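Budget justification aside, the reviewers requested a transparent look at the raw inputs and outputs of the sequence design task funded under Objective 1. We therefore reproduce one unedited record. The lines immediately below are the structure tokens for a 159-residue chain.
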């Protein structure tokens, strides 16, 4: 009986594994280059009001630096307490397919794969204070990430 219990427990654990995506997730804004010296990853909830507040600022920031200096990747991170957020995130992936082919909350930001203590209220000037020193001495280049490119992403607009 104990052997049967162990077998069922092990089988159940292996079947409950979250499926690993076939490609890396994320939407690259404005064709950001994989070899840009600065990579900004933003984990945004599609219905999160703070993500909605931060989105125009980080997209303006990416536009000002340009895709050869800053690669902005938006990662959808629907939170369970934003009603229908998961469904909206799935819908954003569908729209992207039709048109183009360590996180605990949103918005969360990473620069060159390092978590940064940034807030949705940050201005472009605040972001530039963080990014300009990185561009001043970018002796190493970033490795390609292989994410999907889109401009069809704006959080917090479905309510």
């Amino acid at each position: 009986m104990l052997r049967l219990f162990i077998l069922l427990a092990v089988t159940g654990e292996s079947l409950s594994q979250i499926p690993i995506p076939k490609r890396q997730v994320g939407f690259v804004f404005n064709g950001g280059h994989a070899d840009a010296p600065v990579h900004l990853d933003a984990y945004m909830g599609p219905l999160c009001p703070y993500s909605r507040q931060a989105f125009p600022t980080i997209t303006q920031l990416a536009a000002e630096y340009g895709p050869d200096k800053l690669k902005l990747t938006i990662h959808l991170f629907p939170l369970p307490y934003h009603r229908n957020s998961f469904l909206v995130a799935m819908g954003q992936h569908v729209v992207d397919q039709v048109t183009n082919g360590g996180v605990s909350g949103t918005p969360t930001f990473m620069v060159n794969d390092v978590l940064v203590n940034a807030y949705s209220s940050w201005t472009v000037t605040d972001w530039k204070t963080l990014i300009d020193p990185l561009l001043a001495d970018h002796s190493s280049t970033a490795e390609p990430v292989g994410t999907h490119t889109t401009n069809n992403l704006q959080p917090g607009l479905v309510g």
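The radius of gyration is 18 Å. Confidence is low (pLDDT under 50) at residues 142-148. Computational costs for records of this kind are itemized in the attached budget.
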